[in-house]
Design brief:
This protein is an alpha/beta fold and about 325 residues long. It contains 10 helices and 13 strands. It has 2 domains: about 170 residues, Peroxisomal Thiolase, Chain A, domain 1, CATH 3.40.47.10; about 150 residues, 3-Layer(aba) Sandwich (Peroxisomal Thiolase, Chain A, domain 1). Bound molecules: acetyl coenzyme *A. The site of acetyl coenzyme *A has 24 residues, from helix 2, helix 6, helix 7 and strand 12.
């Protein structure tokens, strides 16, 4: 099937804050163990931003690195799309805060709210801008300061999350290389399986609000787990088919790093060996929207992504929402 490929990832960058929080640190604050966390999730440690470091600050660092790799100036960028559920402010967007911090005089900046699928969705939108001829260069970011919405009294969730940023510059395609196919889907009926009940317009903070965990992430982990495996597999197969490929044609898989068992189940269902899967969950845990671009950037800088490799990105998150992208690198 002939593919019209117009948008290519011409640079990647990422940032993780230096402070590490290990499984041993969690043994001191909740009823858990290093052994449980490693065997049930694959996580050994995660990075935590300090109080003075916000999502926009981490996005700035990741963006600098991506611009440098792409040899692109901030004037060339025409759109900035930031996937995040941990914006600096409810208003304005973190993309606009980033713009204020870095320049980008010729760009429109806005956020997408798609939890762990935030980067894939932003990438899909950016790709469409380029394919339709609206813009030539787009900055796409996934960033989270999940520590700001994590309930450190809830062992079901607190051991999972970390802070990070990842960025990619989308530019014109070259020799058929670029984003070949993308897919996005959601099911709002399942929104209460992964959500934060308090803090929005429905349940705003009141002067007598006392901490009950409702303004932090709540997750029905075991139910989310099952949907995640099924829908990530479906999304992956759709973009593989959309690119006119078979699962055996996939060179590298860059999955959302939520749980090693989800990733292994996905690889098994796709019939793709784990040697093709990029893994960094042990070092960073689940960084939501930052997860895929962080793993992508690490794989890119390690030289794991070769020209014309079929790179599959796939993610799943609160919404519930999921998506995938197939990129001919
Ligand atoms: N330490 C020790 N025990 C624990 C811990 C912990 N940190 N957390 C849960 N447990 C216990 C539970 O209380 C439960 O005990 P019980 O049987 O006595 O009730 C037992 O372990 C099993 O609990 P489950 O929730 O069934 O454990 P599961 O094997 O499903 O693992 C996990 C939980 C890791 C959360 C898993 O379900 C998961 O990864 N879910 C999907 C996460 C995901 O993909 N999220 C989407 C992206 S996140 C986003 O969008 C921001």
């Amino acid at each position: 099937m002939a593919q019209q490929v117009r948008a290519r990832i011409i640079g990647t960058g990422s940032f993780t804050p230096p402070k590490r929080m290990t499984n041993a640190d969690f043994e001191k604050i909740v009823d858990t163990s290093d052994e449980w966390i490693i065997t049930r999730t694959g996580i050994r440690e995660r990075r935590i931003a300090d109080n003075g470091t916000q999502s926009s600050d981490m996005a700035v660092e990741a963006t600098r690195r991506a611009l440098e790799m792409a040899e692109c100036s901030d004037e060339e960028i025409e759109a900035i799309i930031v996937g995040t559920v941990t914006p600096d402010y409810r208003l304005p967007s973190t993309a606009c805060v980033l713009q204020e911090k870095m320049g980008f005089p010729n760009a429109v900046a806005f956020d997408t709210v798609a939890a762990c699928t935030g980067f894939i969705n932003s990438l899909s939108i950016g790709r469409s801008f380029i394919e339709s001829g609206v813009y030539k260069k787009v900055l796409v970011i996934g960033v989270e300061k999940l520590s700001s919405i994590t309930n450190y009294k809830d062992r079901n969730t607190c051991v999972l999350f970390g802070d990070a940023a990842g960025a990619a510059i989308l530019g014109p395609s070259e020799n058929g290389r670029g984003v070949v196919s993308t897919f996005m889907k959601s099911d709002g009926k399942l929104r209460e399986w992964l959500w934060m009940p308090t803090g929005g317009a429905v349940n705003p903070y009141t002067p007598d609000f006392t901490f009950d965990g409702s303004d932090k992430i709540y997750m029905n982990g075991s139910e989310v787990f099952k949907v995640a495996v099924r829908q990530m597999c479906d999304a992956a197969l759709r973009v593989i088919k959309g690119a006119g490929l078979q699962p055996s044609d996939v060179s590298v898989v860059v999955p959302h790093q939520a749980n090693i068992r989800i990733i292994e189940a996905l690889a098994k269902r796709l019939g793709v060996g784990m040697d093709k899967v990029v893994l960094n969950i042990d070092k960073y845990g689940n960084t939501s929207a930052a997860s895929v671009p962080l793993a992508l950037d690490e794989a890119n800088r390690e030289g794991r992504l070769k020209p014309n490799d079929n790179v599959l990105m796939v993610a799943f998150g609160g919404g519930l929402i999921w998506g995938a992208a197939l990129v001919r690198w």
